[in-house]
Amino acid sequence: SADWYIDLAFRSANKLAKGMKGQMKALPNSIKRVELSKINEIKKVLRTHFSLILTAFPSIDSLPEFYQQLLRVTLDYAELKKSLGGVRWAEQKIMFFSDLYTNKIKRCGDFKRMVGYSREYYGRICSVIKQVKKQLEYLEHARRVMKEYPTIKQKMFTVAIAGFPNVGKTTLLSRLTGSTPEIADYAFTTKNLNVGYATINNHKVQFIDTPGSLNRFEKMNLIEQQAYLAMKYCADMIIFVFDPSDSSYDAKDQKK
What we know:
Elements: H1 2-21, H2 28-56, H3 65-74, H4 77-107, H5 111-131, H6 133-147, E1 158-163, H7 169-177, E2 194-200, E3 203-209, H8 222-233, E4 237-241, H9 251-255
Helix pairs in contact: 1-2, 1-5, 2-4, 2-5, 3-8, 4-5, 4-6
């Protein structure tokens, strides 16, 4: 959050200043050194963390098509780009104000003006960070969502296991690959994409167990959309599992 970054930067600067003051005499030049060091510490802490945010998020346009589409399904793409732009703007503003007030304090010989410049700087830095409060909150939300994305190897031969809910897709994945995802005797147990691997004729094969998808493309929920994206962008082959028992779904609907 914005408050977390403000607290982190100012706490680090105050800790540094406290250590310096214990080794210095209360002279104007000593005070100037302390104030300059605090500004530099705030700049360093915020620049490090904001740069980390920007580099930690992948370049959206360079992602494989599956992940680009998954991102658009699970997140507000425009809001994500806007939020990253907001953090980039804040980083630039922090650098600008840090350099501006560093130069002002360096040229200043009056103690009161020096302290005044420092207070101005602190206020402006807090204002900059609070201006991107919503953007930071959205990026934290996006991070949590993207953390749950399945890891799909793009260059490996891939088989998608598809079909209506509760027809045995996850059980088939478990038999083929030895993976142990959640299996239960009710529909829509699979709420994301389960991935497993098997070696067939000395070739590594990736299997994706897709959530149960009903025949209603215009009204797909998030789970069904993930299944659709996996079949469209990742699968070299699709195994469609039918339930012939007539107990759950009509055979004609499944074939359709």
